[in-house]
């Protein structure tokens, strides 16, 4: 709820802005100094190396070598310090804490690196950072820090967002201050921390409050997401920073922070002294290139620069190629469910291992697999038999063969040969794990020295690949040889507004056995479904939507989501012909996270989020009620939006879209040239006046 600034508010903001700017100025000054020292040390090391080469006496060489070693060590240290300061230059700190202990006040700030001169502590230094994550302002604490029992009171706890020396938001216990278009606003926080989507009375009350007061949305105004480190809950921070000797399996609906927890746990583990994991023997595995690009974008902001981030296909192909001594190529990509399930089946895997025991040969691994397929043709039928026959006759391979090939290599050699990616791992992270088959997870775990050094995150309600019929974590973990491992449920959703989550939950698989989803009070425009006559009409409406979104905020990061890559390409080409600006194609080969709108498909946006989303042609043909995978795909598309969501359809709309959703039917407005209304901030409260039985829950 937005309120006018008081004099006290203005004084507080001025104090925080000055502190932020001075801290940034100090960081820049220190960075420049360290860079100069790094250059001087490097020059000294080069001069000493030259003197060693020219020295004649052994004792001179030994003395110079000692000096050279010190110079190189100093240069390395300066470089590391300069790198940490470069991170802080982008955002000096994201939190500040003042605590009272033994009659004195102590202040520290949290950043993504440390800078003692300004009392900035690296967030990965637990338990001092736990004073921020575990305690509210006004709370009493008792904890152990550096082996000493400490006791005191948290007198100030604030979170910040900003870019370089520009502070954009200040988060206090009961209010927040947000800078938008050069002006500061005061938002009073709701006393409700979380609520259930089924609590209609509370939702009705909150909607009225937000409609009357008109709360400012920080994310939409700024066009980028607030520093996620300041938003971690005590439960999430606990998951991140404890129990290094056990695997962490994270489940949660869209927007509950699964990827956030997984990547921040990795950053914490890789920090010196927190675990034995090192960047060079750690692997992050994802299913597609767009999520890979996102993780590559995020990890440097967490101080991680040398961890390999790969798709399963890249990693597996490199290992098979290394074993062959030549590039191993996949000739085809297969989408047929029967073929994928056959090759991902643990029964097929067991028969393959039995075949290897009874057929000892020096042949190359791929050739043995084709011999096995030749034998298998006698026990399979239909498309699978036809597919295997073609592979045997023409000697080609598809992506579903990779897990089988790795299983064979592990059985024959007992290890994988390292490539440009590590193959003998100290730590492994698998994101969007629900789309991996049990066999793929098994062969990934074979690369781990200790199978407990694992973080795995996913959501069965977002399973959209057809490689396996798995429907539960228990089955997946048991099949992957991880029985009895606890699955940790993230129960609170943070990403999207209530209006978006309400739509999403009406689409989500109703047969999933999971705890009731809670969400934080966050409200925005009602999604609107616009109906048109033809593809051309829908393209024009999409252009109108793009012009509206980018016209309001050129810095927004958004997406237009189609059902398939082909439809995305057709839409992109049509929009370009209309002269649409600010768009780019987001496909398997390219995906950007700079300001602008990506025209893309559902599979490319798994695990990603955008401020504004338009779902293009959510038709019955594209998203059938009879296809669980299609239901999951529409759920994924809807939950990519953080603030604004609209839909445009030129075919018959999917029956998964609930009747309550506001519709703009242009097919009934012949001759009318008005553009679609799209979403706005007016909330329709009439749905909450109906009887309970009539409300879609």
What would you say this structure looks like, in words?
With 697 residues, this protein is of the alpha/beta class. 39% of the residues lie in helices and 19% in strands. It has 20 helices and 25 strands. The strands form 4 sheets. Strands 1, 2, 3, 4, 5, 6, 7, 8 and 9 form a 9-stranded mixed sheet that branches. A 7-stranded parallel sheet has the order 21-22-20-23-24-19-25. Strands 13-12-14-15-11-16 form a 6-stranded parallel sheet. β17, α17 (498-507) and β18 form a beta-alpha-beta unit. α6 (234-241) crosses α7. It is globular, with a radius of gyration of 28 Å.
Tell me the major beta sheet. Answer: 9 strands, mixed
E-strand count: 25
> What share of residues are in beta strands?
15-25%
- What form results from the Cα inertia axes? globular
- Give the oligomer, counting copies of the same chain as homo and different chains as hetero: single chain
Helical segment count: 20
Spans of at least 5 consecutive residues whose pLDDT stays below 50 are 63-75, 215-226, 688-697
Q: Round the Cα radius of gyration to an integer and report it.
A: 28 Å
Measured between the Cα atoms of the first and last residue, the distance is 27 Å
Helical residues, percent = 25-40%
Write a brief structural summary:
With 697 residues, the protein is α/β, with parallel strands linked by helices.
List the helices and strands and how they pair.
Blueprint: E1 2-3, H1 7-54, H2 58-90, E2 95-101, E3 104-111, E4 120-122, H3 130-133, E5 140-145, E6 148-163, E7 166-171, E8 175-180, E9 183-188, E10 195-196, H4 200-213, H5 218-222, H6 234-241, E11 248-252, H7 258-270, E12 282-286, H8 289-298, E13 308-311, H9 312-324, H10 337-344, H11 346-358, H12 365-376, H13 382-394, H14 402-413, E14 427-430, H15 438-445, E15 454-458, H16 473-479, E16 487-490, E17 492-493, H17 498-507, E18 518-519, E19 528-531, H18 535-552, E20 557-562, H19 565-577, E21 583-585, E22 596-601, E23 610-616, H20 628-638, E24 641-649, E25 662-665
Helix pairs in contact: 1-2, 6-7, 9-14, 11-14, 12-13, 14-15, 17-20
């Amino acid at each position: 709820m937005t309120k006018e600034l008081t004099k006290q508010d203005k004084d507080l903001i001025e104090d925080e802005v000055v502190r932020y700017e001075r801290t940034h100025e100090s960081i820049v000054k220190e960075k420049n100094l360290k860079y100069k020292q790094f250059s001087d040390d490097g020059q000294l090391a080069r001069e000493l190396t030259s003197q060693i080469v020219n020295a004649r006496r052994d004792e001179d060489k030994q003395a110079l070598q000692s000096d050279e070693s010190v110079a190189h060590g100093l240069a390395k240290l300066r470089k590391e310090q300069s790198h940490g300061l470069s991170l802080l230059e982008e955002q000096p700190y994201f939190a500040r804490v003042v605590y009272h202990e033994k009659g004195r006040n102590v202040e520290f700030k949290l950043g993504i690196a440390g800078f003692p001169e300004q009392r900035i502590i690296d967030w990965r230094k637990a338990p001092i950072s736990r004073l921020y994550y575990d305690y509210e302002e006004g709370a009493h604490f008792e904890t152990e820090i550096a082996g000493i029992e400490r006791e005191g009171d948290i007198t100030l706890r604030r979170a910040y967002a900003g870019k370089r020396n520009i502070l954009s938001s200040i988060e206090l216990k009961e209010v927040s201050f947000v800078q938008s278009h050069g002006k500061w606003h005061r938002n009073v926080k709701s006393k409700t921390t979380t609520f259930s989507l089924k609590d209609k009375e509370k939702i009705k009350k909150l909607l009225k409050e937000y409609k009357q007061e008109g709360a400012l949305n920080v994310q939409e105004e700024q066009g980028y997401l607030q520093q996620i480190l300041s938003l971690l809950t005590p439960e999430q921070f606990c998951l991140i920073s404890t129990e290094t000797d056990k695997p962490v399996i994270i489940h949660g609906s869209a927007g509950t922070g699964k990827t956030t927890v997984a990547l921040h746990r990795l950053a914490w583990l890789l920090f010196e002294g927190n675990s034995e994991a090192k960047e060079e023997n750690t692997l992050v595995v994802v299913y597609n290139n767009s999520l890979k690009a996102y993780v590559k974008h995020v990890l440097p902001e967490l101080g991680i620069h040398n961890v390999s981030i790969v798709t399963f296909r890249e990693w597996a192909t490199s290992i098979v190629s290394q074993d062959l001594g030549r590039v191993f190529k996949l000739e085809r990509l297969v989408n047929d469910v029967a073929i994928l399930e056959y090759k991902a089946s643990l029964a097929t895997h067991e028969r393959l291992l039995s075949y290897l025991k009874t057929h000892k040969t020096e042949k190359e691994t791929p050739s043995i697999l084709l011999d096995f397929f030749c034998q298998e043709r006698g026990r399979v039928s239909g498309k699978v038999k036809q597919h295997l026959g073609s592979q045997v006759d023409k000697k080609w391979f598809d992506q579903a063969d990779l897990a089988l090939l790795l299983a064979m290599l592990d059985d024959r050699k007992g290890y994988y040969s390292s490539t440009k990616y590590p193959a003998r791992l100290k730590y492994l992270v698998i994101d969007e794990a629900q789309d991996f088959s049990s066999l793929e997870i098994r062969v990934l775990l074979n690369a781990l020295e200790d199978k407990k050094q694992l973080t795995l995150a996913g959501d069965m309600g977002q399973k959209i690949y057809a490689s396996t019929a798995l429907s539960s974590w228990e089955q997946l973990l048991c099949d992957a040889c991880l029985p009895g491992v606890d699955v940790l449920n993230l129960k609170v959703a943070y990403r999207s507004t209530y209006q978006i989550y309400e739509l999403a939950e009406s689409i989500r698989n109703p047969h999933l056995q999971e705890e009731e989803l809670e969400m934080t009070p966050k409200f925005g425009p009602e999604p609107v479904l616009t109906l048109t006559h033809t593809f051309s009409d829908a393209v024009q409406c999409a252009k109108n939507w793009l012009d509206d979104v980018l016209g309001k905020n050129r810095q927004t990061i958004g997406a237009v989501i189609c059902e398939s890559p082909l439809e995305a390409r057709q839409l992109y080409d049509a929009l370009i012909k209309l002269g649409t600006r600010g768009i780019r194609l987001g496909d398997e080969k390219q995906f950007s996270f700079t300001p602008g709108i990506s025209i893309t498909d559902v599979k490319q946006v798994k695990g990603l989020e955008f401020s504004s989303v338009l779902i293009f042609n959510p038709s019955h043909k594209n998203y059938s009620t009879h296809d669980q995978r299609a239901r999951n795909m529409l759920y994924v598309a809807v939950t990519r939006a953080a603030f604004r969501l609209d839909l445009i359809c030129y075919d018959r709309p999917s029956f998964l879209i609930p009747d309550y959703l506001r519709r703009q039917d242009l097919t009934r407005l012949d001759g009318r040239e008005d553009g679609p209304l799209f979403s706005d901030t007016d909330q329709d409260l009439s749905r909450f006046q109906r009887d309970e039985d009539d409300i879609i829950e």
